[in-house]
Amino acid sequence: MEQVTLGLIGGGTVGGGVFQALQRNGALLSSRTGSTFHVAKVVVRTLEKPRPVPIPARLLSTNWRSVVEDPTISLVVELMGGTTTARQVIRRALELGKPVVTANKALLSAHGEELFALALKHRTNLYYEASVAGGIPIIKVLRESLIGNRITHLYGILNGTCNYILTRMKLEGLEFQDVLDEAQRLGYAEADPSLDIDGHDAAHKAGILASLAHGFWIRPEQIATSGIRGITRMDIQFAGQLGYTIKLLAKVKQIEPGAGAKARCRVQVSVSPTLIPNDHVLAGVNHVFNAVFVRGDVAGDTLFYGRGAGQDATASAVLSDLADAAVDLRNGLQSRIPPFVSHERNGGVLPLAQAVSPYYVRLSVIDKPGTLAKIAALLGRAKIGISSVIQPEGHVGESVPLILMIHDAPHAAMARALAQIGRLSVVRAPTVMIPVEHF
Ligand code: NAP
Ligand code: HSE
Question: Model pTM?
Answer without folding.
Answer: 0.96
